[in-house]
Amino acid sequence: MIITQQQNRSISYDERQQRQHRRKVKLLFLMNCAINGAEKSGQWKKAVEWYDSFESRGLQPNTATFRMVISACENANEYGKVIELYSTMQSKGVEPDEDTNQAIKRALKMVEDNHQ
After folding, report:
1. Per-residue pLDDT tens for 44-86?
2. For 11, 29, 53, 82, which has the most beta carbons within 10 A of its beta carbon?
């Protein structure tokens, strides 16, 4: 459906806010799909790139976002990045799920084992 400029002006502020919110929800879903694809294909750097682009797109990463990018980094033995992402997750107030908590425990153990 094509909306003319005049029709667009008649849309209420609430309607514009709702449309913007729906666009962000769709974009968040697509970005999480991209991170998931990178994770599943072993491309941890690509997963991190997608994650890093969230802010410039006006998106807030959620629990699923962090879980997938942390998993991608853990699978690549990038334990320092796992810890960094977990710290960022905490600073943003995003609650980790059980998978993420387990990943951070494994990463911390690996870092500790490598420093002994």
Report:
1. 999 999 999 998 999 999 999 999 999 999 999 999 999 999 9
2. 82
Q: Tell me, yes or no, if the pTM score tops 0.85.
A: no
Give residue for tokens 């905490």.
90
- Confirm if 56 and 34 have CB atoms less than 8 A apart: no
Residue 3 lies in a domain: no
Residues 6 or more apart whose CB falls under 8 angstroms from that of 68 comprise 32, 35, 36, 39, 47
pLDDT digits (tens, 9 = 90+) for 14-38: 898 999 999 999 999 999 999 999 9
User: What are the φ and ψ backbone dihedral angles of 43, each rounded to 5 degrees?
Assistant: -105, 75
| CA neighbours closer than 13 Å in the CB half-sphere of residue 6 | 0
- DSSP 8-state code for residue 97: -
Is residue 75 within 8 Å of 42, Cβ to Cβ? yes
Asked if residues 48 and 69 have their Cβ atoms less than 8 Å apart, the reply is yes
- What residue numbers bound the domain in which 18 lies? 13-114
